[in-house]
Amino acid sequence: MSTDPDAAEPHPNAGQDVIAVDENDTEQGPVNRLEAHTGDGIRHRAFTALVFDGDGNILLAQRAPEKRLWGTYWDGTVASHPVEGQSQEAATRERLEEELGITPEQYDDVELTDRFEYRRHFENAGLEHEVCAVLQLTLDDCELDPDESEVAGLMWVPYDRLQDHPEWYRQLRLCPWFEIAMQRDD
Q1: What whole-number distance in Å separates Cα of residue 71 and Cα of residue 68?
Q2: Would you give the distance in Å from CA 54 to the centre of its chain?
Q3: Cα angle vertex 177, ends 173, 182, to 5°?
Q4: Where does the secretion signal sit in this chain (predicted)?
Q5: Are residues 133 and 110 in contact, defined by beta-carbon separation less than 8 angstroms?
Q6: How far is 38 from 18, CA to CA, in rounded Å?
Q7: Model confidence at 112, in pLDDT bands (50, 70, 90)?
Q8: For residue range 117-145, what is the model confidence (pLDDT) as tens digits?
Q9: Please, which residues bridge with residue 134 across strands?
Q10: Does 160 score more than 90 pLDDT?
Q11: How far apart are CA 69 and CA 178, in angstroms?
């Protein structure tokens, strides 16, 4: 460990792993999360969770400005990476509670609805190369308790209008994985 006061602190992601996968989402083993998102990137497992209310509105969450990739962009509720041995559903439940205070008592089930691979660069900061699972759930109780270190803003949006007219919402700067998931949702 450096004692130089001007030495940069390591990014928190440097101490975490993600799961490298092949194009069929077959696990290849753990890789460093920061390495997976820099340089040429490493294909890894991820998920995005789309949370709805009973009226067909989707909860969009604005990523905190401190996020290294896509900070202040709007996401289809939460997105993250499962850890080794964790299912997509369990990872989704965990992130919903950590980021938004949504507990399993507020919804019935988490449904895996799609999976796709994509690769996108973000400015000069890094990239995503992920096999992304899409999970959906509907809240019975819409009470939220967002963690400001994860979520900067929240907005309920009529999902059909957003799907049919994404150009109307262009000023929101949507995360690429959410846009892909929404375009693929029939």
Answers
A1: 6
A2: 22
A3: 85
A4: none
A5: no
A6: 13
A7: very high
A8: 999 888 877 888 999 999 999 999 999 99
A9: 48, 114
A10: yes
A11: 14
CA angle 176, 178, 179 (to 5 degrees): 65
For residue 47, what are its two tokens?
A: 């998920």
Q: Spell out the domains of the chain, with CATH numbers in brackets.
A: 17-183 (3.90.79.10)
Of how many residues is the chain composed?
Answer: 186
Buried b (16+ CB within 10 A) or exposed e, 138-171: bbeebebebeeebbbeeeebebeebeeeeeeeee
DSSP string, 98-110: HHH---GGGBS--
- Reported confidence tier of residue 12, pLDDT bands at 50, 70, 90: low
Q: Is the pLDDT of residue 186 over 80?
A: no
Residue type, 1: M
Nearest of 170, 136, 147, 173 to residue 59 by alpha carbon: 136
State yes or no: is 98 an active-site residue.
Answer: no
- Which token pair is 89? 């559903």
Separation CA 11–CA 34 (nearest Å): 8
Q: What are the distances in angstroms from CA 73 to CA 67, 79, 93, 171?
A: 10, 12, 22, 10
Task: Out of 35-39, 65-69, 90-94, give the one with best mean pLDDT.
Answer: 90-94
From the candidates 97, 130, 143, 150, give the one annotated as an active-site residue: 130
